[in-house]
Amino acid sequence: MASGMQHKNAISTATEGLIQAQLELYHHSLGYVKSVALRAATELGIPDAIHRHGGVATLSDIATETGIHPSKYSHLRRLMHALAVTGIFSVEGSDDDAGYKLTAVSSILVEGGESMCNLSPMVHVLVELLKLTMLCSIKEWFTDERASAMTLFEVAHGCTPSEMKAKKGTVGMFQAAMVADSNLVMEVVLKEHIGIFKGVSSLVDAGGGHGAAAAAIAKALPHVKCTVLDLPHVIAGAPTSRDVQFVAGDVFEYVPQADAILLKTRVPSIYYGGARKLYLLEGR
Question: What pTM was estimated for this model as a whole?
Answer without folding.
Answer: 0.77
